[in-house]
Task: structure prediction
Amino acid sequence: MGTYLLPVIIGITFGFVARMLLLRTDFRQYPTYPTGRIIHLSFGFISAFIGAVAIPAVLESDWTAVTFLGLAATQFREVRKMERESLENIDTFELVKRGAPFIEGMAQAFESRNYLVMFTALITTLCAVFSFWIGVIGGIVMLVIVKFNMSGKFLSDIADVKEAEIRFEGPTLFVDDILIKNVGLEDTRKTITKQAVGAIVTPKNQNSIVTLSFLGQRQAMLHHVATILGSYLDSGEPALIPLTKRDMADGRIALFFLPREKDFNQIRAVLDKVPILDSAIRMPKEADKSNS
Amino acid sequence: MENQHAEIVAVITMKPETVQGGGAPVFVVVDEMELQETSMTIEKIMDASAHEINKETRIIVAR
Result:
């Protein structure tokens, strides 16, 4: 077993480093909790370990050990469940909700990161079996792939964001030409006129029209703006809750929200960086719709 | 964001003859100012939102 000790250690190290690279505390403020960090780092370590010992097990023809890889996958499904549950619990106390599809996307990301770590460790060990330096180079290549190729698309890739005027026609609130809702109180109308910002998101093509129509994606946009730019809102104020409405004719989305920071350049920058949820991506253009 | 159930919890009106009794209490007021004040009070108490049906009538809707 001594011959494989060094490759396994290199594999584990690179796998663990990959997990640390993927675990970043960003503006979405998750995972900020020290306990959450420990959970993910230890899971990362375990998956790096499993990935690293797979190759020596194959080389030694120890097939029982290899089947344990399959067992490990079941364990990592638990990670997804754990993330989903804790995020859902937190979401009930959020002023502007994340929404179930956003949570599902995050939970999926946490699960898939463990597989990435496992894969990194596996490839690194495979290279390191041949020579120490090939192992190190292989590990670095894997880190680069993991870090730069695994980020999803952003809203700016599929749509254009522009500022829109908030106006009232009698009691009816409009963002540009899209009807948002009816507001009954003079006082609320004043607050909205003073604090609210409107934005119109115009999809770039037919696919993005369908993607943006997804309610989960729209809720994700609102949550994103609210977490980063704050919101002028409290519980028990349904009249001020941010809303999105869709122009059913051409698929444009109107956003109505009351941020603390009203500079539209910042708002546009934030909206451009809204992640496109995996569950929102639809590609009707790819489907065969011919009459055969 | 999902489809929510909405319910009228109160009606505030200056023209009671235009509103028929139903599940919600009807508050009769005399002028625009009282209309706004009553709507606001009920809105805050019920954590609901006020909506305008016409110049004389507001409804308070809870979701």
Q: What stands out?
A: Chain B has a mean pLDDT of 89. The CA atoms of residues 13 and 28 of chain B lie 5 Å apart.
